[in-house]
Design goal:
Layout lengths: L10 H9 L5 H19 L2 E4 L1 H16 L11 E5 L26 H8 L3 E6 L35 H8 L5 E6 L5 H7 L2 E4 L19 E6 L2 H11 L29 E4 L10 H16 L3 E3 L7 H24 L10 H6 L6 H21 L5 E5 L22 H5 L3 E9 L5 E8 L4 H12 L16
Helix pairs in contact: 2-3, 5-6, 7-13, 9-11
Length: about 475
């Protein structure tokens, strides 16, 4: 074990090594904290690192496992949480300079679940302010550095930018993000990792700072589909404090994940949507479809009654209206230290009338029904996750959003998995998005697992960061 780089071991293997006592939680936690200490001054993935608390928890986990008191297979595994997720007594800023003294008075249900299973929280990761942005930038609190290009700052993807960078760079084995318009999937795409946008109600949002309560969904981020499935399984479940979780049956994605895709019917995106993706992204997308077909999936055409852009516009209307209702006091305070790119996005909700907002909610039900009809007999719809590989920060147009292929899943309450599917000629990762019906995360993970086990794109790593 002394020759093993512990920060490169996937969680499903790390868990086995910890439970068999071949590895100690103290060793693993120290390895990650050392790497954070060496590299995060460059990467800026973490808002705060709980080094002392993490080491104390690791010693407790070690004692419990050695004495036969392990609480489960994930006991002793480190994790990072996006800086929207509350832990009682800890600062939670939501990525805002205006909230740097905001100390949580409660612990989010999902954080309680993870800690109850023995996971060790290493710290909080950066986010776009109030989670309102897909590029991953934060003008006042700093933008995490995409580790795939150490010379030129590029988009890490947002809003779960710090979680994406931390996982991609091996600062943590996995992390939790949130997704309202693509905020788990965009950083997964540009950072070359795997991320799951869950259905509404699958994971409690109690204790998670909101952006748009009608759309917000927490989700797991890791390097592989198998690890994402493990973290999803650990976070899901009914919560009396979150009514949206009521009535959804518990699902075990692990039971069907390895069944393969023979006979699974997968739709390619409509031809009209291809124009938005770069040639490199489209080449990787087409190659992915061919690979799944060789694995036994049936690739079919689909006709949708709407364009992705039309759905995205309704999604944005709800996001703007609800986020402005939540944060209007700060947004309207000209002296408040807010990101100059985020303030106008949320301020646009000021002009959304009640009629327009209710119309967006009404059309949501209409379009859900239309999409259900279009997807009849089809198990999944595949698209690229992002339109391009990660852009240089100086090329970003902050008045636009990179979420063309992601927002429709939020508006229609679908689940969606983003996973690496290539390396473009510029040396940057591309990503495939697998979109399935609401509450059918198991199918998305099944398709993703089959695809990921037929190639090694998810095993590719960004260039090692030189230790000063």
């Amino acid at each position: 074990m002394s020759q093993l780089d512990l920060t490169q071991v996937p969680v499903h293997q790390l868990s086995q090594l910890l439970q068999s006592r071949k590895l100690s939680p103290v060793e693993v936690t120290d390895a990650y904290l050392t790497k954070i200490d060496q590299q995060d001054s460059k990467l800026h993935a973490f808002v705060e690192v709980y080094a002392d608390d993490a080491r104390l928890a690791a010693r407790g986990a070690e004692a419990a496992i050695q004495s036969g008191h392990s609480v489960g297979p994930l006991h002793g595994v480190p994790i990072a949480l996006k800086d929207l997720i509350e832990i009682e007594g800890k600062i939670v800023t939501g990525g805002s300079e205006a909230m740097t003294s905001n100390r949580a008075t409660r612990t989010a249900t999902l954080a309680k679940k993870l800690m109850a299973q023995g996971m060790i929280v290493l710290g909080k990761t950066h986010t776009v302010e109030f989670a309102m942005g897909g590029w991953g930038t934060n003008s006042l609190r700093g933008t995490p550095w995409n580790p795939w290009d150490l010379q030129r700052a590029r988009t890490p993807g947002g809003s779960s930018s710090g979680s994406g960078v931390a996982v991609a760079a091996g600062l943590v084995p996995w992390a939790v993000g949130t997704d309202t318009g693509g905020s788990v999937r965009l950083p997964a795409s540009w950072c070359g990792i795997t991320g799951l946008k869950t259905s509404i109600g699958r994971i409690s949002t109690y204790g998670v700072l909101p952006l748009s309560p009608s759309l917000d969904t927490p989700g797991p981020m890791a390097r592989s589909v198998e690890d994402v499935a493990l973290l999803y399984e650990a976070m899901q479940g009914n919560d009396p404090l979150d009514p949206l979780t009521n009535g959804l049956p518990y699902t075990d994605p692990m039971t069907i994940m390895q069944r393969g895709v023979r006979g699974v019917r997968i739709a390619r995106m409509p031809e009209t949507e291809r124009q938005y993706a770069s040639a490199d992204v489209l080449a990787a997308y087409d190659r992915s479809l061919s690979e799944l077909e060789m694995l036994g999936a049936e690739i079919v055409e689909i006709k949708l009654p709407f364009l992705f852009a039309d759905v995205a516009a309704f999604n944005l209307r709800i996001m703007a209206a609800e986020s402005y209702a939540l944060y209007h006091k700060l947004i309207d305070d000209e002296k408040a230290p807010l990101d100059p790119h985020v303030r106008p996005r949320i301020a646009s909700g000021r002009t959304v009338t009640a009629q327009a907002y209710i119309e967006a909610l009404r059309m949501r039900d209409v379009m859900k029904a239309q999409f259900s009809v279009a997807l009849e007999g089809i198990d999944a719809l595949l698209t690229p996750t992002t339109m391009t590989t990660a852009l240089p920060l100086e090329d970003v147009d902050q008045s636009k959003a990179p979420a063309h292929y992601t927002r429709f899943a939020n508006y229609l309450n679908l689940c969606a998995l983003a996973l690496p599917n290539g390396i473009a000629p510029d040396g940057l990762p591309t990503s495939l998005q697998i979109v399935c019906r609401a509450n059918d995360e198991s199918m998305a993970l099944r398709i993703g697992w089959a695809y990921q086990n037929s190639n090694d794109w998810h095993l590719r790593r960004p260039s090692a960061i030189e230790v000063a």
